[in-house]
Structure formats: structure tokens, C-alpha cells
Design brief:
Distance between the termini: 27 Å
Family: Belongs to the peptidase M50B family.
Cofactor: Zn(2+)
Strand content: 5-15%
Pfam family, one: Peptidase_M50
Largest sheet: 3 strands, mixed
Number of helices: 6
Structural class: mainly alpha
Oligomer: single chain
Subcellular location: Membrane
Radius of gyration: 17 Å
Helix content: over 70%
Main location: membrane
Length: about 180
């Protein structure tokens, strides 16, 4: 790896989480490290070079050399797979970590490009459909998923006094998906 950069947004998010509950912050950072290690292992095994890793408020971004659709699918699936495997292995020993790791995998498996689920879906679709159709499908997935998440977050907050965390999480996902929709 040539370069690692940490944005102020990542630092602010980590500080906010640490202020809220430092133990959860440590488990989250460990889960994030394992998740990204899964991606890096897959990239190494598929012989794709890593150019940069950026830690931002919306998560980690790994910039790589060009990949085939097969390589992209494998590398996208590897992060959530690592999260799920480690969550299962450590379930009895560290249930808090396992829950956080499973949550991280679930969020990353949503069909929102550029997240792992969206990348995997895009790679699979591009093997069969032209790019214009794939982009239309991905935009529809973004709209349906984000609308559903925002409605669910508002309902949780109103019905169960869940606080602003569900809405904050839905907004972060919406922002990441919105950035990608401009690229598609």
C-alpha cells in the first residue's frame, strides 16, 4: 500500500462515538479493521494493487487498480464475509463485537453503490447487461433502499424513542449513495 489517509470526518465520527461510549468505539474500530482486512486479503489474492486507503466519516474507501467484474465481485464480498466469519467465531467470547461486526456486514451488503453490496450487484449485472441498464437498476435500488431506510429510521425514532442514531445512519447511507448516483 502506498498511502493511508484519515479525514477529519473520520476522526470526528470516532471521537463522537468514543464520547458516546468508548468501549463500543473500540469494538467498532476492530470490526472495521477486520472488515477492511478481508477486502485487502481478497485484493492480494486476486493480484489487484492497492493505491490508497482513505478513512472518512462515511467509512473506508480503498482505491485500487482496475479490476475485472469477477475480481470486483470477489473483493466486494470479502469484507462482509470477514465480518460475518469473525462475528461467528467470537460470538460467545465477545457478543458486543459480534453484534457490531454483523451490523457492519449487513449495512455493507445493502445494494447501495459504492458500498460492498452495490459493488457486487454492479459487477454481477455488468456481466449480463449494458452499462446504461445497470446504472438505471442501481439508481432504482438506491431510491428504494434509502427511502425504506429513512422511513424505518423515522418510525423507530417516533415509535420507540430510538433517538437520532437511526436517522443519522440513514442519512450517512443516503449521502454515500447520493455521491455514487452522480457517478453512475
Amino acid at each position: 500500500m502506498r498511502r493511508l489517509s484519515v479525514t477529519p470526518g473520520f476522526v470526528a465520527s470516532a471521537c463522537l462515538l468514543a464520547w458516546y461510549q468508548w468501549e463500543i468505539c473500540l469494538w467498532f474500530l476492530l470490526a472495521l479493521a477486520i472488515h477492511e482486512a478481508g477486502h485487502l486479503l481478497a485484493l492480494a489474492l486476486t493480484r489487484v494493487s492497492v493505491q490508497r486507503i482513505t478513512l472518512a466519516a462515511g467509512g473506508a474507501k480503498i482505491q485500487t487498480a482496475e479490476m475485472t467484474y469477477r475480481q470486483e465481485w470477489i473483493c466486494a464480498a470479502a469484507g462482509p464475509a470477514a465480518s460475518i466469519v469473525f462475528a461467528g467465531l467470537l460470538l460467545r467470547l465477545c457478543p458486543t463485537f459480534s453484534l457490531i461486526s454483523l451490523g457492519l456486514a449487513a449495512i455493507n451488503l445493502l445494494p447501495l453503490y459504492p458500498m460492498d453490496g452495490g459493488r457486487a450487484l454492479r459487477a454481477i449485472l455488468l456481466r449480463r447487461l449494458p452499462p446504461d441498464q445497470v446504472n438505471a437498476i442501481l439508481r432504482l435500488c438506491v431510491w428504494v433502499t434509502c427511502s425504506t431506510l429513512m422511513l424505518g429510521a423515522c418510525w423507530l425514532t417516533a415509535q420507540y424513542q430510538a433517538g437520532l442514531w437511526p436517522i443519522f445512519l440513514a442519512l450517512v447511507l443516503l449521502c454515500r449513495a447520493g455521491e455514487a448516483a452522480e457517478v453512475l
